[in-house]
Amino acid sequence: MKFRQPRLSSLLNALILLGVVACGGAGGSGDSDDPLDLQSLAIANCPTQALSPGDKIALAVEGNPAAGKAVAVNPDAFQSDRPRLAAVDAQGNLVALYPGEARVTATAAGLTSEACLLQILPPENQGSVRRLTDNADEDHWGMNNSWPMTSRGKVLWQRIDGNLDTEVLLHDRRDPAGDDTSVDRVDFLSGDVDFMALGSAAAEGEVLLSYRVGLQDTHVSANGRAPQDLGDRQQEEGSIAEGCYFFREGGGANDIQRFTASGLTEILSAGETYMPIGSGCEAVYERRGAADSELLHFDGQTHMPIAAGLPAFPDFDFRRQRAVYASGGDVTLVDLTQNPPAVIPLTSDGPARLDRNPRTDGESVVWHQIDGAEHHVWMYDIASGTRRKLSATVAPKKFDSLQIDLKQVLWVEDTELWFHAGSGDAADSAAVDLKGVPLDPGYRPYLKDGLVAYVGNDGDTEILIVE
Asked: What is the DSSP letter of 321?
């Protein structure tokens, strides 16, 4: 018996040196007398290859003691120097959010690890065109469409057959053409299907979609499942993101409604309100007065004016707590991540040049500039405050076609579809080879999550994607 205690003590010391027993000190207590005597920390599985937005990694941390092998460590905290690009929680669950570079560190036992450098690239798009439809029916976005028809790799459209009946269809890009989900069938006597919209749902990987039937009834569907009728809302102008659907109730009401899994809520009935644009269950929209208009920001609870003195139907956009708008021929950014919100003029060209159609993905801003007879597309990086020209030609741009998502940019010049893949400048923008199926001028193309969807016309309207 008298030899067991020394033997047990020796065994424990050996196990500690070998990294088998952490004795609590490696749990991040921060005590200077940590029995492991850690000398340094490292993120053991720091990615060596570039990530894409949406990629997830559970980071693991190792500590290097004064003697023995590296041991697993439960750190006190993780930190990202650019959480809007790469977010990491206290448990080390990392999510890549936006293209760029970010550095992540871990702390434990009074030590900070060497930074794990992350490179996040825009979604891959090879510029390859693929048909989703090829028939004698009419496949398109429907009337009164100005909201995205693609999200999370899915595409929404409607098909009008020879009997003038309408079918609402949802396609997953991972499936072959023709393998579509039939969301709804609306007979000719029930009226037109219009104001279609598609966006991300609250559930990971799923989408939420909406459309109006017969100029009055609003329908919503989660990921293509049986639609829910919200009743006679005379829905006009709708925006969907992260499971929140904002729309304007028409019929003279002009109120802003919000639909979530919890149901339908009126969020603003004071004044004439229009054009809600949602992001993260927040929204920006126009409130129109007798003489001019203002932009209001809804943070999920309250409303706050962020711009005033604008013309009716102002040109604006909103994403990830950042809004942009055009006024007086110039473009302005409102950064709602700051308190109070920062108002940042992006251009001051005055009457010499016309800057219009600003669009943002929350980290970058693009706009259309008319300089005499020349037309350009510019991009501004919010973090660095730098800008660069993206357009390779001075040809006129279709003013409502400009879009940006995850640093990738889309616009139309005459009958050409132009795409910027997310890095470089004008030399890296190119017209997409549409393989003999030209754009139908009556429907705008859409860009989301690296996927482009457009309506082509080779005698009748068809749905195509660029991937």
From this structure: T
Beta strands across the sheet bearing 322-327: 316-319, 322-327, 330-335, 342-345
DSSP secondary structure of 174-233: TSPTT--EEEEEE-GGG--EEEEEEEE-SSTT-EEEEEEETTTEEEEEETTSS-EEEEE-
Give the distance from CA 70 to its chain's centroid: 40
Residues 6+ apart with CB under 8 A from 396: 375, 413, 414
Q: What pLDDT does residue 7 have?
A: 37
Parts of the chain belonging to CATH 2.60.40.1080: 13-120
Element (H, E) at 4: helix 4-18
What number of residues does the chain have? 467
Q: Tell me the C-alpha distance between 157 and 370, whole Å.
A: 33
Residue 399, token pair as written in the block: 């003013």
The residues, ordered by sequence, that sit 6+ positions from 386 with a Cβ below 8 Å of its Cβ are 380
Amino acid 24: pLDDT? 38
Q: What parts of the chain have a pLDDT lower than 50?
A: 1-33
Is domain 129-466 given the CATH code 1.10.1610.10 in the classification?
no
Cβ contact 426:393 at 8 Å: no
**Where do we find the tokens 């339908």?**
264
Omega within 30 of 0 (cis) for the link into 276: no
Residue range(s) of every CATH 2.130.10.120 domain in the chain: 129-466
Residue 12's H or E segment, with its range, is helix 4-18
| CATH class of the domain defined by 13-120 | mainly beta
Paired tokens of 377: 């597309």
CA distance 25 to 301: 44
CA distances from 258 to 278, 336, 380 (A): 10, 21, 31
Specify the pTM: 0.89
Position 35 scores a pLDDT of 57
Residue type, 419: F
Q: How far apart are CA 394 and CA 250, in angstroms?
A: 40
Q: Count of H helices and E strands in the chain?
A: 1, 43
Q: Which long-range contacts (CB under 8 A, 24 or more apart) does 62-65 make?
A: 63/26, 63/36, 63/38, 63/108, 63/109, 63/111, 64/38, 64/39, 64/40, 65/17, 65/19, 65/36, 65/37, 65/38, 65/39
